[in-house]
Amino acid sequence: MPDKPIPIVDRSPVMDRERREQLGISVDDLAARAGISTQELMAHEQAKSEADVNPSTAMKIADALDSFERTTSGDDV
């Protein structure tokens, strides 16, 4: 059984970047799936504090990562 999506409160830009890399997703592919620019994704992944994170962008990234994970595990319906 695949892992459940990570709750948003347990996410961070560093964790999002690590998860993207573990899934083998390029910056361009994740940005496209999230509906944001590559620059926005890179800024998110390099955020140094919570104040530097755009909540809307973070949610789009989280949803896109969850979608990629479902697709690679075969659970995307």
UniProtKB/TrEMBL annotation:
Coiled-coil ranges (or none): none
Protein's name in the database: Helix-turn-helix domain-containing protein
Source organism, top-level taxon: Bacteria
Domain HTH cro/C1-type: 17-73
PROSITE patterns: HTH_CROC1
Classification of source organism: Bacteria, Pseudomonadati, Pseudomonadota, Alphaproteobacteria, Hyphomicrobiales
CDD domains named in the record: HTH_XRE (cd00093)
Residues of the signal peptide: none
